[in-house]
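In this section we walk through a basic example: taking a raw amino acid sequence and producing a predicted 3D structure, encoded as discrete structure tokens. The instruction is simple. Fold the sequence below.
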Amino acid sequence: MTISLFFLQTGFLCAQEGYVKGTVTNNKEKLAVATVKLGHKTTLTDNNGEFFITMAPGDYMLTITHAGYKKIERKVPVRSGVTQVLHYSLMPAEQMGEVVMVGSRSAKERSYLNTPVPVDVFTADELVQTAQLGLSQILNYLVPSFNAGRQELYEPVTLRGLDPHHVLILVNGVRYHKPAWLNNGTPKSNMGRGSVSNDLNSIPFSAVEKVEILRDGAAAQYGSDAIAGVINIILKKSTGETSVQLHCGQFYPGDGLKLFAGFNRGISLGKKLPAGRHGFLNFSADFRHQGATTRAGDFQGTIYKNYPPNANEADSLRVKEEDDSIANARGITNRQLSRHNGINKVERAGLLVNGGYPVGTRSFLFWTGALNYRDNLGKGTYRYPKNLNQVNPMLYPDGFRPEIRGGNRDVSVITGIRGELASRWAWKFSSSFGTNVDDGSVANSNNASQYALGKNAPTTFYLGRLVYRQYVNNIHFSKDFSKENSRFNLVNLAMGAELRLENYQQKEGDSASWYKYDRSPGIQGGAQPSIGSIAPHNTVNDSRTVSAAYIDLEIETRKNILLDLAGRYEYYDDFGGNLAGKLAFRYKFSEIFSVRGAASTGFRAPGMQQLSFQGTQSIRGTDRTGGVFSHSSPVTKAFGIPFLKAERSVNLSGGITSRISNHLNITLDAYLIQIRNRIVLSGAFSKTAPDVATILLNHPGIDLVQFYVNAINTRTLGIDAILHGKWVFNKTQLGFTLAANVNRNVIFGKIRTTDQIRDTARFTNTLLGIEEKTALVKDQPRKKILFSFNAERGRFGICLRNSIFGNTSTTTIVMNPIDTLYENFSTKLLTDCSISYKPKMWLTITAGANNIFDVYPDPLKNYRNTGEGILIYSNGAMPFGSNGGYYFLALTFSF
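The resulting token sequence is shown next.
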């Protein structure tokens, strides 16, 4: 009712608008998801091949594109109050189209209703409509089987409840490099603990034209890492247009200011060339500022005095009163020395250039270059003066809170050429380079073992550098043989090869960041917090070579049967080879109903970071230092840990697609993913166990030990369902999407153990502890339901979105006394709403709020999990964060 009144009240303002609607076909059938662009507006055709656009009066260029078909460009006059009805038929392209549909190597693109496996497609306009910042969080509110972490260093993404390294990221169909950082289960990094991360946000958002998400195992098509699926980011190729995006917002409590500025401009190259053969150069630039937030409680413990061992209640009260007296005398009354527990301050800037140029009549050069820089400023846990093993009292008589800074940069370059031979074989050669460099430093800190230096001890430390580099060379050939046989609509044979070089490095930091100058027991060496500092004996410079060959046959008969068979062999020079295969099918019972399914084997090679990483870190929120040892370490061998093997997977999926009507469709897919020899970060082995202490005799600063190991087998079962509708009613465009995912992760078979260590009371010889098991099975929501509604009439638009995040859980082992603490977090509903207004054809103003009802996750229930009152909300298992409501204003300029 409210929406109806809204449009009745504003309808009279839209009299000067004109309307353009039409249908897009290929002479045989109507084409869904064709991209229709009129001036600065872009939309997709619906299931019936229809589109509808409202514009201010004027003369505009209408562009219609669909992969596998030739582009149409026409000038269209728009007149006030007039509705134009247009019909266009696209002709098949003579060579592979500029846009490649993920999951298929043929030149023919299909809508998501006609693919043999589930694929989601989101245009730039749909991505912007979520009003989230960063591609990771945008997709988090669009895809139910997609989850994005809320972590300090990265926002890694997952599909279907698996790990970030089970998702392969492509840019324009080319493998994108991974970050150097490895998720070792440090605070605020529970999701995907033990995994190699990914970073969609390192790609400037202003450069993104479309995102395709293949939700099915695709290792046989694209190689290692594609067990859960593939995300392909397609970059803009537009010319003659300029767009500027501005966003400003903050959280309800008044902190966490977010600013975003994005710019995109495309120019045409070689205008004297024949129509349709022009080259292009598209520039994008982004800047993003994220202010820090605080969602912490007041510290309830002591600052200067420790409670005596086995203290009774009276002794504890006396110590607390004495400590409060000292604190009051020193002017510390608000008990918020350690107040933080929110998100960090982050500043990010990115540049990207995407281009192409025709060579002759059958070839096309293409290139992409990108640079992204991120500066991350975080706060560590407060170090209290009572803990002399961590604090130099001459420097910090009241303790200190360290400031952790990470400087992170990405560089990516893609070059190549594609074309077609006279025999109609399409070919493509590409070469790409990508690197991520992560520098760490800490300020307002100390090395407690340097107390002899007094006030002259250093307070700023360089922790070292992580580097990951990737070089990829690909050659590809494909041909459609259907012209030689009239019984088939498509017989596409594709084959190719890949050569990939990888390099991982760890470079040492300042000696004071890791060295223990005083060897007395209990005093911690190295900078506080003891995380990320790289000592000379932990430096790494390892490389490997990966070669691969693949073949793919896609057949579509005249009887509505589509088959896709794929096989891929990859050989790694550090651990061997693997052969993966896939069979997918789709059968059309009619134009409105199809069934589809797929069966595939897959694999994931151990990441170089998992093979080579070694270093120290804080563990379990205490003053204990943990060591993660690589497979070449004598410590690892003494524990009897075998060399890492590739994960092996089996993917089964099946589902239906249906056009319920011309305006309504549904997809329903069930899946089972079984992974053997899954790589995890082991549980922590404590030095309190005599066997562990013996092995660590030469490592006096290490209290707990962890490794990367093929410890478990898992099964993931789930269902994806998407209902989508789109109508034009009384010159008002209405659309909605209801999408849901339900999944479950289970561990089957025996968890690997080591016979080198005897059992202890809490830290067992199991290579997957209770903390790690809970993070693996319950850290991501078991259900996620998304509902969105949008309406547009004339100059006004409204978007309403509801997101349901299912329950999650965490487990923590705390010390003194040792105990296992469980936390369960209930299902939450978040509501977003925004209203847009277009006072000019080149300006759109959007105002709104995300999480408008200010919903927070459940607070921690066990006091011993709160760090004596500091933590109100968990650092893990938080699929939507703990910052509350967010309001914003955004401006979009299009010229």
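Looking at the output, two observations stand out. Residues 136 and 148 are 6 Å apart (CA to CA). The radius of gyration is 29 Å. In the next section we compare this with other chains.
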